[in-house]
Design brief:
- This protein has 11 helices and 14 strands.
- It is an alpha/beta fold and about 300 residues long.
- About 35% of the residues are buried.
- A hairpin with a 2-residue loop joins strand 1 and strand 2 (about 15-25).
- The strands form 3 sheets. Strands 6-7-8-3-9-10 form a 6-stranded mixed sheet, with helices on both faces.
């Protein structure tokens, strides 16, 4: 099922085009990573999806319904975790979540139960009566998430949810993203931390200058710029090495043996590391170290946009 469908979406500010004829689909059950340098159009796209901005042209469908004609329906089924904290310091954690649940249309016993469950999910039930002013940055981020998921949305949009927090809190939030996904939520995730996107996203869209420049799994994106990798193996000696037997392994393109180093160029899509190691062991070649050089997502991003993600 297609949760979100965008067709030729455009947003203009006078002569400036923030989003330029963007088209994409988000399937049910995905964790879609949305990447782009500053000014790429990510935040504008998100604001258009959640009706904080009006589009110039194009079409947005949520759950098969046109957004412009079904805003109330969309509101009930979409949760947004904004980059800037959207919590009230003078309200307790529970009061914050209860308040946002009310905005999403929850009432009565359902609202109270959902608020308690949302706080428990982010690990803040024991701080339900505490004020955010007493929280760490990571705890505030978790409260921000609780406010966004209190109504149990089918689609959750997370815009830089781990900015400025400690590694422990970041790991907790990433685990929460996976748990939400496993519980049935579809997630759109933006981040300036490439390793987060590689770790949790099932598909990635790269934007630049308001357009989509590439999309696919991380493996598919890496294959855009390079379809091979190099395996560097330091050995005790290459004197008795039979390179022809290594060349017979599926995916291997070439083998070079120089002094104490064996360089094997192999297809990126073929996972043959173990076979290479086993072959060396069978030849009684003593292995000292192994290094694999392959393109990473940061390299793909830089190649496609000409900029680093954090520029």
């Amino acid at each position: 099922m297609v949760i979100l469908e965008i067709k030729q979406l455009t947003k203009k500010y006078d002569d400036y085009i923030a989003v330029d004829q963007l088209s994409l689909r988000v399937q049910e059950g995905e964790i879609l990573g949305l990447l782009g340098p500053n000014g790429a159009g990510k935040s504008t796209t998100i604001q258009l999806i959640v009706s904080l901005l009006r589009k110039t042209s194009g079409e947005i469908k949520l759950f098969g319904k046109e957004l412009e004609r079904h805003r109330s329906f969309a509101k009930k089924h979409v949760g947004i975790v904004p980059q800037e904290l959207a919590i009230y310091e003078d309200m307790t954690a529970y009061e914050n979540v209860h308040f946002f649940g009310g905005l999403y249309g929850l009432r009565g016993a359902e609202l109270m139960q959902n608020a308690e469950e949302a706080l428990a999910f982010v690990g803040l039930r024991d701080r339900r009566n505490s004020y955010p002013s007493t929280f760490s940055g990571g705890m505030k981020r978790r409260l921000n998430i609780a406010c966004a998921i209190v109504h149990k949305p089918k689609l959750i949009i997370m815009d830089e949810p781990t900015v400025g927090i400690d590694p422990q809190s970041r790991n907790y939030i990433l685990a929460s993203v996976r748990n939400l996904n496993e519980a049935g939520s579809t997630i759109i995730y933006t981040s300036h931390y490439m390793e987060e996107v590689e770790q949790i996203c099932s598909r990635i869209v790269i934007m630049d200058h308001g357009k989509m420049v590439a999309e696919g799994t991380k493996e598919q994106l890496k294959a855009i710029i390079m379809n091979t990798k190099d395996i560097w193996i330091e050995v005790q000696s290459t004197e008795s090495l039979d390179t022809s037997r290594l060349k017979e392994i599926q995916g291997v393109n070439s083998v070079e043996a120089i002094d104490h180093m064996v360089k094997i160029n192999t297809e990126l899509a073929v996972n043959n590391h173990n076979k290479v190691i086993q072959q060396l062991i069978s030849q009684q070649i003593e292995i000292r170290s192994v290094r694999i050089d392959e393109p990473n997502l940061e390299t793909v991003f830089l190649t496609l946009t000409g900029r680093n993600l954090r520029d």
